[in-house]
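Recap from last week: sequence in, structure out.
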Amino acid sequence: MAQLWGGRFTKETDRMVYEFNASIGFDKRLLDQDIKGSMAHADMLAKQGILTAQEAASIKKGLEAILWDVEEGRLAVDLGCEDIHSFVEAELTRRIGEAGKKLHTGRSRNDQVALDMKLYTREQVMVTDRLLKELLKVILEVMEENTETYMPGFTHLQKAQPTTLAHHYGAYFEMFRRDRQRMTDIYRRMNYCPLGAGALAGTTYPLDREYTASLLGFDGPAVNSMDAVSDRDYLIEFLAALSTIMMHLSRFSEEIILWNSNEYQFVELDDAFSTGSSIMPQKKNPDIAELVRGKTGRVYGDLMALLTTMKGLPLAYNKDMQEDKEVFFDASDTVKDCLTLFTGMLRTMRFRKDRMAASALNGFSNATDAADYLVGKGVPFRDAHGIVGRLVLYCLEKNTSIGALSMEELQGISDQFEEDLYEAVSLKACVERRLTAGAPGPKAMRAAMDGYRVYLEKE
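Predicted structure tokens:
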């Protein structure tokens, strides 16, 4: 059993205890980060005269060889080791001898694992941000092609007012843009290096923590050594941000599932992103959207697990913190997969524009515009509201729509209705009159999309 401790112990660790304690099965994915951090630490030790230049060079060459051999499949991570750190140190010492034992000078596994997790998290933040940007590009492409694709807007899942597909998608652009902003915030707050904090109280060696931090691309060293080894806020923030991304994906998925149903028929999913039924040959199921919706709960659970793990821990490091990795890896992997597949599904989805427009008309989404028409004729809005309410009731009884009524029928409800009503309640007119910033009108949508293009180009 390869472990980095044991001098004061007189008995072998119980095998079950050892396996329960070990983390190599999941922290092996931190190999790259562990070696990068170790190389920077070796450089700093040499700069400070704690290692000779020759020792540091030997250590770095050995570490590079280990990473290369693992990546090329010539060396397997030894799952008999306690963790990835003990594997790297044992393999390094086997290859270069005594110099390998000096690498851990001025370092603890506490600040070592904190560094590995920060380096790994930083990479995942950037990967997630890139996937969000790709999704935003697809959303903007759909918007640009559908500024005159009319559809009902909903409140309470009831048809409310007419809008466009571009406007509807714009709401999701805003959501995912905020998700990218959270990535930026997390990166900025977490980008301080814990290496050199030691177990919790620093070290007596003359380390240059600023130098190590600069080698690894941090803004500086973590200020307090106890906080440096016990801080998992950045993981909680990232999991919270991932949960918010999943919530947005789940809302979007729910709408696509509804739009794909026989009752709506707003969209048709590409065959590559659908599945069939083993018994019902007519089925074309929106499995990707359903799985994204379902996996949202899984990511929420990962966040809650880490919050619960951290809630009662005294300073500084506690073994409980080992539980941060599996939930973090699971949530990060899940969200990356969901973003990738959802973006592909969105890119290949086709829209039934005729069905969308018909749905907007048949659901009286233009009723508010009919009321506004009467207000334009001098009718007080509250009276206009009541008149159009009676008009809708009449349409329901006749199984028709406002625009399909004859002028005789319209004037039977209010003599204020004239021929220009038909134009006023058309979907095109209803949308084009909405000119306020953020509305679906052409001018407002052009301004929004121009801003979105600039945003995506400059990032």
